[in-house]
Amino acid sequence: MATKSMGDIEKIKKKLNVLIVDDDPLNLIIHEKIIKAIGGISQTANNGEEAVIIHRDGGSSFDLILMDKEMPERDGVSTTKKLREMEVKSMIVGVTSLADNEEERRAFMEAGLNHCLAKPLTKDKIIPLIN
Amino acid sequence: MNTVVAKLQRQFQDYLVSLYQQGFLDNQFTELRKLQDEGTPDFVAEVVSLFFDDCSKLINSMSRSLERPENVDFKQVDSGVHQLKGSSSSVGARRVKNVCISFKECCDVQNREGCLRCLQQVDYEYKMLKTKLQDLFNLEQQIVQAGGAIPQHFPSYTILRPDIRPCLDA
Q: InterPro entries per the record (chain A) (predicted)?
């Protein structure tokens, strides 16, 4: 992977606004730290329904949405479909566990994801997607 | 003082490497350490503390679900295992994660005895890791109190060849 220049990092700092959608408080803390480490800012939602409400009420615009798959209230697949129906244009990256099989991942992608990453997330997994 | 700090730093590095060699930790723990900075010097300690709280709650919940042989809620147990596997993966708790893999297999075939064995094992592993990490954090504190800096070496764990010693990345 090419080393990012300070200019590129500055571009990331100006642009990257991230919504992290996950029901696990541990993942929320870690993923927020990762986004901060790459120079972005983040907001969190504890489940898919909250993510939908954030978009419906706030007219929020995110550069990136990190979408967990398994969540109560509304799961990642349903949330992604709903956000795309609402014409949300953000890059939506699904976050799956290793237990998910190929069919489950495909269904998640077909819901409207731009990419899918397996947990655990790291900076190195996210940075190439936002280039 | 420099000798004391250097000795403590060496102890810290050796102990950290041993945790990888013994399979307690994997590369995800390295990633967490890389995220820690001057602004959040207790990030790793806070994250693992949350993880251990999760472990305790989930193990208690699964224990209740497995209590009565005639009325085991395997769906509930499976949900707990799934959460625990996810959390352990997120913090790099390798042994805990590996027990969860076996635990899930027992849930899938509704093997209560197997689940109970795995529950006991996961309880043992998380408590063992908790003790080990507390010792690691104590070493960190000693280094800081002695006026030194915590070594920023980040061991990597190679699982393809268990006989390969972890390397120290500068």
A: CheY-like_superfamily (IPR011006), Sig_transdc_resp-reg_receiver (IPR001789), ST_Response_Regulator (IPR052048)
- Span A77-128, pLDDT tens digits: 999 999 999 999 999 999 988 667 889 899 999 999 999 999 899 999 999 9
Integer Cα distance of A76 and A79 in angstroms = 5
Q: Which residue of B has its CA nearest to A36?
A: B35
Number of domains within chain B: 1
Q: Report yes or no: B143 and B8 within 8 Å, Cβ to Cβ.
A: yes
* Strand stretches in chain B, DSSP E: 154-156, 167-169
- B168 is a domain residue: no
Q: In this complex, is the C-beta atom of B107 within 8 Å of any C-beta atom belonging to chain A?
A: no
The nearest CA of chain A is from the CA of B145 a distance in Å of 26
Q: Is the residue at B87 inside a domain?
A: yes
| B83/chain A closest Cα distance in angstroms | 8
Q: Does A119 touch chain B if contact means CB atoms closer than 8 Å?
A: yes
